[in-house]
Amino acid sequence: MIRLCDYIQDFSRSPLQPWSELAPWDLVIQAPAIVRQLLSQLDPQAYDIRDEVAVHRTAIVEPGAVLKGPLIVGAHCFIAAGAYLRGGCWVDEHCIFGPGAELKTSFVFSGSKLAHFNFVGDSVLGRGVNLEAGSIVANYRNERDDKEVQVRIDGQLQRTGCDKFGALLGDQCRVGANAVLAPGAVLAAGSVVRRGEVFDCEG
Length: 203
Hints:
Layout (H helix, E strand, L loop, with lengths): L23 H6 L1 H9 L7 E4 L2 E4 L3 E2 L4 E2 L3 E3 L4 E2 L4 E3 L2 E3 L4 E2 L4 E3 L2 E2 L4 E2 L4 E3 L2 E2 L4 E2 L4 E2 L12 E4 L2 E4 L7 E3 L4 E2 L4 E2 L3 E3 L4 E2 L4 E2 L4
């Protein structure tokens, strides 16, 4: 059994607390609906809200960034030109998305960074996670007929019942440049994936 609070400190005190008992893949499946619910609870004085996209008034979004709802971008975030956020995303405070960084249907906790030219799909990233340039969190097993994503828990593979799930990265994980996390990666807090490494829990 994966408990989100075992990977992300203070998860149970975040706005996502009502969903803290969900498995991470179930959380991302429900991401668009969850983000829409959270959108309805935001203070319009603190957020600029348009077309299901809410950006905190202290956040910086450069011209050329593409933001598609439902989406929440928290306080003091920086979204660079060329970044692309879509598909139901919740971004906590003090996060950075560099040029060419793409985030799809994911939850990102405070202080996390996608340096540039990253893809993160259908994932949950804890606090202070850092993805160096070109690192990828893949979300789909395109290479095989059986698309269902599996995760490894206590050394055993477990089916998720879904065909799109990227990763659960605990607080302070570090992913080096050009590394690839295959679908179903579950990394404990403080884990390090080296530059150029391919991490596949089924391998």
